[in-house]
Amino acid sequence: MIILSKTSNLPLILKASAILGVTEVLFSILFRYLGLEDFQMVPYLRLVTTVFLIAYLFYKKLIIKDSIKRIVYYNSLNNKLVFYWILITLICLIVGIFRLNPILYIITDFFYIFFGFLFYRIIQTSVNINSEIQKLEINTVHNTFIILLLLLSIICLFSKINIPSFLLVLSLSFSFFFFFKKKYLYTFLYFIPFIIQFTTANRAILIVFLLFATLSFFNRPISEKTLFKVISLSVTAIIVTPYILSFSIKQILPLISDGSVLKARLDQVKMLMEGKYNWNSPEMLSLKQRIDEVLIVLKFWTANVFNFVFGGGLGATIEGHSFKDVGVGSSAILGKEKIHNIHILPFSLIFRYGLFGLILFYLLLKNLFLNLFKVLTTKNSIYSSLILFQISWIIYSLPAASFLWTSPIFWFLLAFDYGKNK
């Protein structure tokens, strides 16, 4: 209770992260007690945590009429992205209703985008971003958040539940920031949650970690003079990395206990790199599932002009009785006959929004690369680490699409460009 009371002095981004993190961990324990597995509890956790954050923002009177009444157009990529997203969501809401998609999924699809838009607008209308960034530069602000983060990580470890994904990515972002500030104690403390989660980490968080590990070699902003050198090193790294990775995996695999999630993921990578894989084998089941989803979406998308332009609309589902991945069926609220979750991000967007979804994915990629260039070419700062969260969260969501738009923190940080420049 003492720690929670101290969170009242935190910047809004950390305060919101604390509320979401505590809520997710407590309800994960409750849902586990009620017999739900990890995949089964995900949709309920997203809904509960978002509702708790909305309630807090209402309590603090941060959700005001200006948040949705006054439309602000600011010439930034993030602003275009968010306003385009809410526009196509409204269009595809009509499409979903016209197609008689499951009402539950129509409501939840609209809920996350609408409140994501609202979270974005709260930052634009109610928060002084420059003040937020200045607070985040203060070490004592991080002390309270680190204590809470480590406490939640330890609870997750002993309760055998996953640390909230957004907290892992956020902690890696801050660890990256303090690494370049040469404050190695903070670097290590923010890195602890990833260490705790490492043996049960999914592919997405491992990819994000590799991104941070790569960026750690750039200890100063890239200039025009060093740009060619960086490009040359990057091309060399792309060529050499598969060989280094293959060798490293062969050395690491014997040291990892059988049955662990990490070993299964590394086995998949090893088989793919060696070309010795069987799509029908248990080891490749989850990857085969993703490919099956992609093929179904492509068949649906190209079936007619209406599907191509508008997609399936909000709440669109596919039939999944032929899927062998048990986790996919068990996590579907309405059962195998109405599977709503398409894992691969671009195809998830295409399935919901059609051609509009493909344009949305282009805007997300443009956001990713421009922000990555911004991080590499500007002085290391807390602002850069927050921008890096945006980049990392998009990358994290590439193989796990729905994580992208269901995270309030993602929408909060999209507004930082607007707030910092207004």
TrEMBL record:
TM region(s), chain numbering: 12-35, 41-59, 80-98, 104-124, 136-155, 161-180, 187-215, 227-245, 344-365, 393-416
Keyword annotations from UniProtKB, A to Z: Membrane, Transmembrane, Transmembrane helix
Origin: domain of life: Bacteria
Name the UniProt record assigns to this protein: O-antigen ligase-like membrane protein
